[in-house]
Amino acid sequence: MPVITVEGPKTDDLSKKRDFVEKVTEAASEFYSLPEESIIILMKENRQDNVSVGGKLLTDKK
């Protein structure tokens, strides 16, 4: 059973999250030739003050 971990920015839009996991699950199911019920997705949300790019916090890049 595949476990897919996705790290990204925090979002409170449950509709977008539902759509995202449905699409990723469908793609993984097709790729692995496994039923969708066997695909696990873990979403890790990161606040912008916990992520840096090029030595700068994303919070400071706004």
From TrEMBL:
<dbReference type="Pfam" id="PF01361">
    <property type="entry name" value="Tautomerase"/>
</dbReference>
<protein>
    <submittedName>
        <fullName>4-oxalocrotonate tautomerase</fullName>
    </submittedName>
</protein>
<feature type="domain" description="4-oxalocrotonate tautomerase-like">
    <location>
        <begin position="2"/>
        <end position="60"/>
    </location>
</feature>
<dbReference type="GO" id="GO:0016853">
    <property type="term" value="F:isomerase activity"/>
</dbReference>
<keyword id="KW-0413">Isomerase</keyword>
<dbReference type="InterPro" id="IPR004370">
    <property type="entry name" value="4-OT-like_dom"/>
</dbReference>
<dbReference type="InterPro" id="IPR014347">
    <property type="entry name" value="Tautomerase/MIF_sf"/>
</dbReference>
